[in-house]
Every structure is written in C-alpha cells, then in structure tokens.
Amino acid sequence: MRSVSIIGAGITPFGVRPESAVRLGAEACRTAMEDAGIGPDRVEAFFLGNFAGHAFTGQNHLAPMVAHAAGLGPVPCTRAEGACASGGLAMRQGVLAIASGAVDVVLVAGVEKMTGAATGETAQILAAAGDYESEASIGATFPALFALIARRHMHEYGTTREDMARVAVKNHAHGYLNPGAHLQIKITLEEVLGSRPVADPICLLDCSPISDGAAAVVLCPGEMAADLHPKPIRVLASAQASDVPALSDKSDITRFQSTCRAAEEAFRRAGMQPEDIDLAEVHDCFTIAEIMALEDIGFYRKGEGGRGACEGETALGGAMPVNASGGLKAKGHPVGATGVAQICEIALQLRGDAGPHQVPGAEVGLAHNLGGSGATCAVHILASGA
Amino acid sequence: MRSVSIIGAGITPFGVRPESAVRLGAEACRTAMEDAGIGPDRVEAFFLGNFAGHAFTGQNHLAPMVAHAAGLGPVPCTRAEGACASGGLAMRQGVLAIASGAVDVVLVAGVEKMTGAATGETAQILAAAGDYESEASIGATFPALFALIARRHMHEYGTTREDMARVAVKNHAHGYLNPGAHLQIKITLEEVLGSRPVADPICLLDCSPISDGAAAVVLCPGEMAADLHPKPIRVLASAQASDVPALSDKSDITRFQSTCRAAEEAFRRAGMQPEDIDLAEVHDCFTIAEIMALEDIGFYRKGEGGRGACEGETALGGAMPVNASGGLKAKGHPVGATGVAQICEIALQLRGDAGPHQVPGAEVGLAHNLGGSGATCAVHILASGA
Known about the structure:
Two copies of one chain form a homodimer. Chain A is an alpha/beta fold. Helices cover 38% and strands 18% of the residues of chain A. Chain A is built from 14 helices and eleven strands. Chain A has helices spanning 21-36, 53-57, 62-69, 86-100, 119-127, 142-157, 161-175, 189-193, 222-228, 257-270, 287-297, 307-310, 327-331, 335-351, and strands spanning 4-11, 45-49, 77-81, 106-112, 197-199, 202-203, 213-221, 233-242, 279-281, 364-371, 376-384. The longest helix of chain A is centred in the C-terminal third of the chain and has 17 residues, at 335-351.
C-alpha cells in the first residue's frame, strides 16, 4: 500500500454557529487547503463525514454541496456515514483512495450543524445511531445507553462517580486552553457531581455538548509530502472495525469490541504498542466512554481506566495526555466533524502547532472515533516526520 | 492499481416490500454471498449505499446493522451517500478498498425502504438530494427540476413528448420480462401521453416509481476471481465526478457535466469507446434522464438521444440494449439500491444469467448512476472473463 501523509489541517471554532452545514464545511476546507498551501484545483477527490445533515438541516447529498462551496472542481465527492464515527470513516476512505493509486491529493472534511433543532428532536436524531427498533423506539436514547454501560462498569470494576467526574474536570481544564473549544470553562469535581442528573449515574457535566462545527485535512502520498509542506505528518495506520449495534446483543457492555479490534489492527499496522503513543484523542462522548477507551485501546488494563484522570497521567503535563484539545466533552461534539477534528488536533500537536494546549515533544499520536454505542470504530495512528 | 472482479450478485425483488431496510439489505447480501459461494466469514469489508434510511425509517448508521443481520464478522462497515448515486459510490469505495491492497474480499450493498412514508413526505425526503435552500425549500421537488430540464431539451433540440414516452414504453416492455421488476406491466405510447400530468411536460408514466429493494455484489482482486467463481466479471473502470448541485448554477441544463466527465474517465481507464459497449443500464429516473444519459455518455450526439428508443436501437434485440432490466422506470428505484442493482444486472447479463431479458452474447457493459439533479455521477464499465 502507498503511504499517506497529512499536509494541511483546519478546524472551525466549535460551538453555537449561525452558519449552515455547507458554509461551516467549506470554511474548514479552505483553512485546511490554505494550511497545505494548495488551491482547490489541486484536490482530486473529496470525502465528507456527516451523520445527520438531512435530519438536522433538511439537506442531504452534502458532499458536492460543501465541495462546490469550497471552490473544488468537478471531482468525486463522497459522504461517509458511520454515526459519530463518520469523520473517522471519511478519513479512512481518503487514505484508501490514495493508497489505491487512483488519486494523489485528497481533501477530507467532517461537519455537523446541530444547534438548530429542538432538544427532544436532537435526542431522537442522535438515537438513530443506535438500534432504532430495539432501543430508540422504546426511549433508550444515548445518555440512557451509556448510563447502563457506566453502571455495569461501576459494578464490575469498582469505578466510581468521582472517576468519571475527574475526566470531565480534566477535559474542561484542557478545553479552557483551546481557543476553538465550545466550552472554554474550568469546572470542579463538586460541580460535575452536583450537576443535574440526566440518566443515573450520568449527570449533565458527564455529557459532551451539542455543537456546530467542521474540520478538514489535506492528504497526499507520503512521497509527495515533503515537497508540499515543511512539517508533514505520516498516517502510520488507518484501522476500522464494527460490532453488533444493540446493547442487548453484546456479551459484555463494559468494553467496545470495535475499539479493541480497530486498536489492535492499528498497532499491528504501525508496528507499535500502546506505550509508544505520546498523546491520544479519544471519543469521550460521555465521561465513562473515555475510561473505556483507555482500557479498550490498551493504555490501561480493563477496569483501571479511571486511574488516568485521577492520577493525572492523562492530563496535560502527565505521562500521556488524553484529549489535550478538551475532547468531545469540552471542545464540543459536532458529530460528523469529530473524527476529522481529532485527526487535525493530533496533526497540529505533532507539528508543534497546537498553541496553548501543546503537548511538548510529541512524536506519535492516536485518534479514536466511536460510532453509536460501539457498532463502529476508527483508529488512526499518526507520526511526525516525512 | 490492483484489478477487481465481481464474483457474486444478488438483487431482492423490487416493489412494495413489508420488510425493514435492514432485512432487505441482509437478504440481498446473503443472495450475493451464496452466488459467490462464500460464507460471511470470508468478507473483509462492507460498503452500503443508502440515501435516506434515517428519514424513511428512523434508522441511521445502517451499515453495521445490515452487516450484522447478514451474518458478517466485525469488519469495517461504511455507508456511502451521494443521493440517488449512493449505490454507485458504495461500489466505487469497494473497488478502491481492494485496489489499495487493504482487503481482498469485499461485500457491497445498496438498500432503500421508501414505501412506508406518505407521498408528500417522500417528495420532501427526495428533494433533499438537490440544493435544499435554493430549490426544495421553495417547492422545486424533483419532477419539477426534471420538467425544467425536459422543456429546455425540447426547446434546444426538438425533442418531443413522444420521444420521452417511447423510453417508458421500451423500459416497461423490458421490465415485463424481469420477474424482479416492480412494474411488470406493458404500457402503450398513448397511455404514457395520456397519463396524469405531474410537472409539465412530465406525466406520471414518465416517472420511476417509489420502491423498496436491495442489491449486493461480492468483489475480490482480479487474480483471485477465477478460483472463486466459474464466471467472474472484471471491473474495467470505476469513475466518479461531481457538478454544482443547483440547477440555477449550471450553464447548460440539457447536459449533466458529471455524467460527461465520469463517462470520459471510465472510457479512458478502460481503453474503450462508446461503440465498444454491448449494453448499458442508465439512470432513467425520468424518461428525459435516459435520453440525456445516452447523449452525455457519448452513445448519441447531443440532441439525438431520443432516437435510441424511437428507432429501436436501445430496445432488447437492438444494436445496444439500454435498461434491459426495465431500468429505474419499470424495475423500480429504491434509491440507495439502484447503483448496485445496475452493477448486478450488467454482471448477470455478461455471465449469460439474466433470464428472460438476457442480451445474447454481451461481453462489455456500462452502468450509469446519477445523484440528485446531476451533482454526483458514477460510471462503471464491466467485462466478462477472468
């Protein structure tokens, strides 16, 4: 397979944005192309991660809409959807397209415009990422599903409410340093524990917010990268796996098999181990999800993921910072954008361009993007250097 | 690039089906795997074309749902969406995945479950394939857009209502021979011309029906194909292009630039000319769309596409049969399934397995799948032989 590198990255500020999905997507695309120092005429294919543009905004068929607004030519434009992992899947399609030899310069973007819908409507739209017939149709929306997961994790491994709350405190402390984050506010352990219950044991401050935003990266073959950007980033591995969608079909809800499999394949393809990773962006849609990701990827033994935030190991300045951007929890979670934003964040970190939340000297990073209650997972490992 | 072959094909009967999208998709997958003589454990990646499962059925994140129902393992499952070209785009992602060397055996499916929604609701859902802000939001649903196109084509080239109606008569005559077609009824020129006006000059019998259905193909590297199937089919070219989404942004609405570009690239990659094609399945969502496809692909000069059906050249028994399956017009148009069903149809024709509507001795076929009012197009050229 041809190797692939990242030569441009762009993220819009996340939050409540007045622009349409098309404009947000185009904004991220233009920033990424500018960062890569290329014009839209150089782009040979476009992949867009988007979960529910149709439901949120009335517009389906978003890939050519965004591409046209970003000034691209009549190139192949494809939307990839895998619920909250749509961005990671779009990234993987971009990697495969270059690896195949069909194209050289590829633009990958992710976008979601969520804040226009009413709260109950939004919960229903998001619930369509799970098994609609057996879950959403009887009221099991995502906070409820992750509450069941959290409760079981507490029961099996002694994980505590405080362990989860500390993930929120840590990621908000990170997001406070990220000028593009949706929630640039520090919070305390007491505030998380005392926040409004959503689905016991999950409280409001255990949840990622409903955000608008977009992100984009420019990819090219490894052999072209050094000529196009002074600090290219290598894609060492692009892995993806799936699992049964419904929680009731899983034999063990304290782990996501899709994460375990995708991470295992990513490490195998990169020829690496978890201890080789300097920083990671993981899918903390709820605080328990970060704890599980740390375990399922292999950074911690099963049941010990709560240690990461409690002992400071996953904080900025710790042994392996996790979600230095603020994560979904504080940076925000515009669903289709998230996977691509994680890739951007890792790429900027490895270039030393992450700004106030820079992890000094990071050379290898991992991005973990989960879809639904684990039916889809994409894991990418990136490294600095041409 | 590694070459890719088709070693299995399966189509569900199209029509009003009681099953869910997940069950329809799984049914086509099982038929395709059975045709390929492989079990679900052999499949290494899954791509699903689906346009609007969320809007039609409440279920998003359909790829792992269908894969699980079809018995696949925890393999990468990705949904591709490009409006009515979603199936063609899923096919292309499957081809790229194999060409990249990442995987060998790939299952590609397309599905749409449309008949559960009310008529007005369906029109709105389909309208999201165009530019929502400038078209659908002010009432320009698809029959209206194609009526504008048809009227302009009539004005520029002298195309007549009869030219269009003859496409419907021909495709219904073909669909009458296809036991899987939604509308297995012969119709007359007078019936088409006298059918209820929808958006002048388009009448009811100029429109493809609202259908449920699914289709699937099994792909593998060319070098493996002969060992896996007695009659493998080669994918000579997989091409895709885009165009501006809104009709008002196009300089000429009598041609789809995305079709022109995708067809040109497909012929270049296959090292062929339009006259080398023995049969084609083209995207006849409305009768005028078949006439334009014949011109834009290069089978006829611009303005002369109406000749195809009038002079019998594109009928079964003619020089180059078009939509021998009945096309979208009579076979039915479950949106996300259509592109994959076209590939199945061509593959079965080239194998000599198409049944009553077989085109004798066909060796090279072309599939043309259009998205929206031309913002997306995928063209595949297939040939018999290992």
